[in-house]
């Protein structure tokens, strides 16, 4: 077994470091830690008794990221409903559009964070930026799986999207009084060229050309070179070979210009020409404008290998990274992740991301999407689907620690065939039932999933709580929902006691409308029937009342302790016409007393 | 060459092993002596603390996450070792055990609105269980599907199982089982499985340090026919003193997972042998096949506590190295240390037992080790240089105003009249049990 390649994270607790122990207790979303000393009956502790609440999943508590969680949840649910039997071509389009939806949610979230612009959030913005960058590359390489030709176009889009500072700088230059003389002018032009944005580069160059009428021809030549550079058109009829021939032709033309010193008198144009020809040294001289090795990679591909195949990528990526980074500097996690992606090593990407990001959102959603694309299985991993489930379970468990996000987690658990149901059972019963409304919400989720034990437990908890607070009606209806006969009996007795003490019933609405639910327990049945007797009596239907009373006693569902009350209730009936019934009743009662 | 079809290496087996944590807030518990146990209630909204100062405190979490002490009272006449909550189906019930040779059951009674406004709650003693002749070292409620049952174990080597037959009358507890384990007991854990396939089962650990006495962890299982607990297994490989023991949530599996704190952390798998069970119609307990899953000596010496999180994806342990270590299995069921909580040598001090009027925010920094993340701190996208510990940020801890912390030095209010509707109760019938050897 390979050794663990990351050390566990150490969280410092403000507590004594030696000679003492650190006690702990698990909570739903945190751990409580406290200083203690185990097994020391005589040991005297100091007065220092702090309990420290230690949390993970910090992201869960960020109000802006909540939007990310909420909206990605919709996308996730949509993805799960994509039918298996769709033709794979249609599916691929759908998967790409789902991937784009995920990314646009990240972008929206990032923009919102940037507006808040508090320094605390800088970290989150940078993490989201990285996430989006990685996701976008995975989309190009794995999900869209662009072949040679379109591949470079996608990579160019990828670099352009994540190197937006060119546009900012360009705006600054253009808004100045004399753009062509702005000190950032050439940086902008070169940056455009490096990103293959020749239209913009040419527009900028026009401004310079008008300032230098003498060099007009030179500028015109550059404009021609730029405008003639062929780009592969995936929608067109041109084959890749035809494109390649055309591109080589152009490349030779640029090279000729360089050889015959066409731009020798203008250092800037010469540099651009060298870039166009793909001169490595010139490119590396512009590290600052490129800013990253993967920009360097894409630029180099653009000017040297525009028909690069996916399978060749990792070779160029590796060499660009080595060339670009100082020999001394160690690749950072982001570099390794991107490199792994260029190597099409999906599992390494997922692994590195989950280590580096301390954020389950990204790996869980990306892995789920890749799994739907059948990309994990293609690696011949028998545990491919488990990887997906493992990550989804982790993510959803994190959501469950949040007071409102837990509801999103339910759908994630639902889509984990192996352990999703058990996890949901374990987590949902821990959701604090602060209000009846919340309890009903939790209950509905459990009922929909036939989680009968959780349903019973929630009702029982609510019934107990209501009883403790002397809300008998609520306690009764919750215990009926729990089908808890013993508890219903207990509450019924409370009702009867209350009646004995006060002579009136509470919660009449409930008792009068129980229907078949009254059969849950004998005592409850008696309570309902006894109340019925009172109602009949009030309505002066004495005969029926007397019969009911009698049946209550003969059917032996009246608790013995209640007989005196029943007899007392029967006394007024003696004054009524139907005394024969009552006499019979009393005789009967007398008989039973003897027994 | 493209590596699309390469066979995965062990490298991908370790996923997301770094659990970054931070101290969100620090609460001045204001116990006058060592805290021995802190216990969350089922929903994580309340906690109970107990201490050598012989008291138990109950804390409630408010809407904004702050903790307020709502009750504090003297519970025992000795150090209180453990405090634990009953399942909320049984109301608000606590049990504590102590050096004073007793265990006690406490129930919160719904106070007058006056008290609620002052943020106080009333706890009354429902019963004192005095059967032990020595220090009661652990107290645990049995899984709720068994009813309201309380288990204690004590230094004299006896496990006692009590039952409250009427959940509305917690002053009546009957001693249902008394199981002699022969060795000084330090800890017990119930198997939480509610599956019908699994009869009630608990494990008991002994801190007897004499290795010649053999296995220090015994597993007992209930037998429907004899209505007694009988020993199903002794973990013979665990010969050193055991300080804590914890069954993992079952997750619908056929086997059980047990974590043990001894001179190291150990995780065992207990696999019931099905075929055996069918044959033995009445007598013997389920045979268990014991497999060791993991064993870690990172704590260097004794390990004192082990405990699982809700879904048993993380195991925490506390040991002589002064650290709490978090252990995590990946999806291939391989276990590794994934996080460490460590005292930084700068304990917060509160003067003279007063809840410190500290407005200082206690270390809410994200501390990471020399791991990948440090490498990233200079990254372009990841983690730009972070502000040092974010003093005064949103994670400010709140200390309860001193007025909320009561020090009752006397016993609390006497139990009220037992609730009136309970008509009869079973007599206390000690049932000494033949221990299955």
From TrEMBL, chain A:
It holds the Pfam family Nucleopor_Nup85. Its main location: nucleus. This is Nuclear pore complex protein Nup85. InterPro entries: Nucleoporin_Nup85. It comes from Sander lucioperca (Pike-perch). Keywords: Membrane, mRNA transport, Nuclear pore complex, Nucleus, Protein transport, Translocation, Transport. One of its GO terms (cellular component) is nuclear membrane. GO terms for biological process: mRNA export from nucleus; positive regulation of DNA-templated transcription; protein import into nucleus. It is found in: Nucleus, Nuclear pore complex. Belongs to the nucleoporin Nup85 family. PANTHER family: FROUNT PROTEIN-RELATED, NUCLEAR PORE COMPLEX PROTEIN NUP85. One of its GO terms (molecular function) is structural constituent of nuclear pore.
UniProtKB/TrEMBL annotation, chain B:
GO terms for biological process: cell division; cellular response to amino acid starvation; chromosome segregation; positive regulation of TORC1 signaling; protein transport. Its main location: nucleus. WD repeats lie at residues 28-60, 296-328. It comes from the Eukaryota. The keyword Manganese does not apply. Component of the Nup107-160 subcomplex of the nuclear pore complex (NPC). The Nup107-160 subcomplex is required for the assembly of a functional NPC. The Nup107-160 subcomplex is also required for normal kinetochore microtubule attachment, mitotic progression and chromosome segregation. This subunit plays a role in recruitment of the Nup107-160 subcomplex to the kinetochore. Belongs to the WD repeat SEC13 family. This is SEH1-like (S. cerevisiae). The lineage of its organism: Eukaryota, Metazoa, Chordata, Craniata, Vertebrata.
